[in-house]
Amino acid sequence: MRPVTPGDVDRVVEILTGSWGGTQVVMLAWGEVVDASALPGFVAVADGEIAGLITYAERAGAVEIVTIDALVQGAGIGRALLDAVREVARERGMPRLTLITTNDNTRALRFYQRYGFDLVALHRDAVTRARDLKPGIPLLSEDGIPIRHELELELPLDS
Question: 3-state DSSP call for residue 91?
Answer without folding.
Answer: helix
